[in-house]
């Protein structure tokens, strides 16, 4: 089965159009004020209006409350909520019931033991996303271009559908998928020229690399 791709942190019509044109299965819109990729609801709505029905819109949030999420879900017509903070399984299950959307939970990974957290979400989410664990003092829980040791996933019995994230770009994608067998890959900083600034050529290169796997 072909590897699917998500381009996350899109913030301009040009870069969103590049992701769609080169067959991204998912596009990510970030709703987190500390991120250089943060969107207000008006900008998110304008971008979301460009997305065709066969491409799914993922809203990336960090420990957001219901009032905030109500606005994000409606503004962007989200298909998926990606929880990238410390949201507990009970919180994830509540959001799935409240919105009826697909729910993803990011699992920060540095050691093999970190992977065990995925099992806690078995009954609460639709997919887990393994991402590199950021330093404790970092303002961002992801999107920093960090990667973890992909070999940690070798032989791991995944409790849920899953995706691979963390430091992926066009140059290392084939190796990452070869080692992990990832069915879905997610990149943000790997297709940027500077933090928060997506590059249409890098988006194209990443998605073309994914299409060849």
UniProtKB/TrEMBL annotation:
<keyword id="KW-0057">Aromatic amino acid biosynthesis</keyword>
<comment type="similarity">
    <text>Belongs to the TrpF family.</text>
</comment>
<dbReference type="InterPro" id="IPR013785">
    <property type="entry name" value="Aldolase_TIM"/>
</dbReference>
<feature type="domain" description="N-(5'phosphoribosyl) anthranilate isomerase (PRAI)">
    <location>
        <begin position="6"/>
        <end position="208"/>
    </location>
</feature>
<dbReference type="GO" id="GO:0000162">
    <property type="term" value="P:L-tryptophan biosynthetic process"/>
</dbReference>
<keyword id="KW-0028">Amino-acid biosynthesis</keyword>
<dbReference type="Pfam" id="PF00697">
    <property type="entry name" value="PRAI"/>
</dbReference>
<comment type="pathway">
    <text>Amino-acid biosynthesis; L-tryptophan biosynthesis; L-tryptophan from chorismate: step 3/5.</text>
</comment>
<dbReference type="GO" id="GO:0004640">
    <property type="term" value="F:phosphoribosylanthranilate isomerase activity"/>
</dbReference>
<protein>
    <recommendedName>
        <fullName>N-(5'-phosphoribosyl)anthranilate isomerase</fullName>
        <ecNumber>5.3.1.24</ecNumber>
    </recommendedName>
</protein>
<keyword id="KW-0822">Tryptophan biosynthesis</keyword>
<dbReference type="InterPro" id="IPR011060">
    <property type="entry name" value="RibuloseP-bd_barrel"/>
</dbReference>
<dbReference type="InterPro" id="IPR001240">
    <property type="entry name" value="PRAI_dom"/>
</dbReference>
<dbReference type="InterPro" id="IPR044643">
    <property type="entry name" value="TrpF_fam"/>
</dbReference>
<keyword id="KW-0413">Isomerase</keyword>
